Amino acid sequence: MSSLTSGCKIVILLQILFGQCLSDPPSFTVDYQNDCFRKDGEEFRYISGSIHYSRIPRIYWKDRLLKMYMAGLNTIQTYVPWNFHEAVQGSYKFTGDRDIGHFLHLARQIGLLVILRPGPYICAEWDMGGLPSWLLQNKNIVLRSSDPDYTAAVDTWMGKFLPMMKPYLYQNGGPIIMVQVENEYGSYFACDYNHMRHLSSLFRTHLGDEVILFTTDGAGLGFLKCGTIQGLYTTVDFGAGANVSAAFAVQRHAEPQGPLVNSEYYTGWLDHWGSRHAVVPTAAVVKTLNEMLALGANVNMYMFIGGTNFGYWNGANSPFSPQPTSYDYDAPLTEAGDLTEKYFAIREVIKMYRRIPDGPIPPSTPKYAYGAVKMSQLQTVAEALDILSYSGSVKSMYPQTFTDLNQLFGYMLYRTTLPFDCDVPTPLSSPLNGVHDRAYVSVDGVAVGILERDKALTINVMGKKGSELDLLVENMGRINYGKNINDFKGLVTNLTLGKDVLSGWTIFSLSVDEAVSQGLLGQTVSGDGQNPSKFSLPTFYGGTFTIPSDIPDLPQDSYVKLPQWSKGQIWINGFNLGRYWPSRGPQVTLFVPASILSTNAPNNVTVLELENSPCSSGLCTVEFTTTPILNATALPHLALHRKLFRKLDV
Predict the structure, then answer these.
(1) In the chain, which stretches have pLDDT less than 70?
(2) What's residue 11's pLDDT?
(3) Which end of the chain has the least Cβ crowding within 10 Å, N or C?
């Protein structure tokens, strides 16, 4: 009897000391009978917001997550762009801004649960919808299908990535409560059930049977036909002003019982170069949010913070219309993480349904205007070819694509000669719309015009037989949505001069970012400044600025604008901020995070101006300011290619 009593005491003592260890393990499940989720056995409803770690510098992850937590969110949702981690086949990167493990750790530390959306296709207005471009080395591959080559690549990637995520699942002590399989597959033409079944099995193999796997599709019955399969919980997405009851009735068609879920409730919308900056009124956002929460629905707000498409990561829609560098999205937190009226209005709605955390909200980060920076002309692209194309050129009878030459992003230069005298203006044409996406054309070192995908398929050139014809071709971002995501870049078909097909090409794959970051570009005297054309040769410009040492708390975030510059790319201290195109809009300023600035040395600014710089007129500056400009559309007649909140297979 005394022995039994002693044993009971030991058990009680262990329960006191290690109660969690001896209790039931963490669980997150679907309660179909009561139409809800259950977290550790208790009824649970998530109120979530989307944040993409790939669009925010690592140094700001904690700030953005804290602001989301203080808004009343209990969950965040994030995409995983495959090509962000495996841009080069077999080379995986999970450090620095790609350290998703650290991002998940921060979320858990702050008290946020996580909904993970690893694709493999994510859309997200991200280059090629997150799929790596090296998949296109098989020119006939059918992406997002049971194509054996695609399936093998997905299996290898997920075999690397998903086991890394298993320790972060909620039942294993981590923050991940749900994992999405694929993304809006009902909007894709393939409708390959075997593909979806394979992904479901693949995710189960690596993550186990306990985690909730789900799908997301537009709130229309047509989308559910191909987007849903047995074993994956069906959710829908829709935006402000939708008929909430009708939208959830679509989900009920696939899930008669279980929690109501809007996996993408649109707080704003995406932009395209040349279209107006999308704005969704705060009043409309909070009205529909309140309607959903009143029904007991689970809601993820897409986006809660949009962030930035730094470098070349923006995607495009079809007919070809690329997204700008800013992914501000008119979200509750701005591109720079600043608090907005929409943020506080959403917070007030959430207060009606759950307790808001106590404590201060982290403030908007301060901005500093570093002023105008004088720029000096460096080399033209043609002058810097030996530096930019250190691997040498490739000779080919007909043009080769970016993929053919293992060029991921940026620019390639195509060079040939005029096969006959063009004493009168002669049409240089891309009859099959094969310039992907924009070609800056010169003859014998004189800029003559631009060929642009879908928009400008022919320009006139003049020159003598044997004159050097250069086309600097820019990859403006791969299509991320619809049936045309197998988006090859470069000259993807032949060009013609008059009636003749041009041949005998020398092709230079350009490593622009490496040359800029290593400071290899020098200053030369170019004769192009006398060119009477409205175009000038693609040319690099450089300048420096020093951050004041007598002002505390510097460096601070800033915005940079390029007054009277046309179109190009800008780097600061070798960091690729992204594309600028103020001549088309709507984005005018680019966000400059303080983390890339230096107080210990002059900050280097490098600009690649592709069309025409203002430097020949004397004004040759870029300007750092405190105020973003995202709505200065130069071409207001252009309409959005995807209507607000419409998930169509374009």
Answers:
(1) 1-22, 525-533, 634-650
(2) 41
(3) N
Nearest one of 585, 627, 620, 586 to 605, comparing CA atoms: 620
Sheet holding 500-501, edge to edge: 458-463, 422-429, 496-497, 500-501
Alpha helices (H) in 445-538, listed in sequence order: 512-517
Work out whether the CA dihedral 510, 516, 522, 525 comes out positive or negative.
Answer: positive
Query: Are the beta carbons of 326 and 278 closer than 8 angstroms?
Result: no
pLDDT of residue 526: 56
Closest CA to 81 of 106, 107, 54: 54
pLDDT at 551: 85
What are the backbone angles phi and psi of residue 438, rounded to the nearest 5°? -150, 130
What DSSP string runs through 435-476?
Answer: EESEEEEEETTEEEEEEETTTB-EEEEEE-TT-EEEEEEE--
pLDDT at res. 225: 95
Angstrom distance (rounded) from CA 495 to CA 430: 5
pLDDT, tens digit (0-9, with 9 covering 90-100), for 287-334: 999 999 999 999 999 999 999 999 999 999 999 999 999 999 999 999
Measured CA to CA, the distance from residue 567 to residue 524 in angstroms comes to 21
Quote the CA–CA distance of 41 and 25 in Å, as a whole number.
10
Q: What is the DSSP letter of 567?
A: S
pLDDT in tens, 620-635: 999 999 999 999 876 5
CB 248 within 8 A of CB 297: yes
What pLDDT sits at residue 616? 85
First to last CA, the chain: 77
Please classify residue 12 by burial: count the beta carbons closer than 10 Å to its beta carbon, then call 0-12 exposed, 13-18 middle and 19+ buried: exposed
Residues serving a catalytic function are 184, 264
* H-helix segments, 184-259: 193-207, 221-227, 244-254
**pLDDT value of position 2:** 42
| Residue (of 521, 542, 557, 517) closest to 607 by Cα position | 542
Cα-based distances in Å from 117 to 72, 124, 176, 645: 22, 11, 10, 19
Distances (CA, A) of 455 to 286, 419, 458: 39, 26, 9
What are the tokens at 172? 């294993």
Angle (nearest 5°) at CA 388 between 383 and 394: 95
641 neighbors 272 (Cβ within 8 angstroms): yes
How far apart are the C-alpha atoms of 107 and 103, rounded to whole Å? 6
Q: How many residues in total does the chain contain?
A: 650
E strands present in 327-437: 371-374, 376-380, 393-396, 411-417, 422-429, 435-436
pTM of structure = 0.94
Compute the Cα dihedral for 574, 579, 585, 586 and give only its sign: negative
Q: Which run of H or of E encompasses 103?
A: helix 100-110
Q: How far is CA 627 from the centre of its chain?
A: 23
Helices then strands, counting H and E runs in the chain, come out as 13, 34
Cα 348 from Cα 353, distance rounded (Å): 10
- Structure-block tokens of residue 532: 């009477």
Nearest of 527, 632, 624 to residue 277 by alpha carbon: 632
| Secondary structure of residue 53 in the 3-state scheme | helix
* Cβ-proximal residues to 307 (8 Å cutoff; 6+ apart), any chain: 51, 52, 55, 56, 327, 335
CB-facing half-sphere around the CA of 65: CA atoms within 13 A: 26
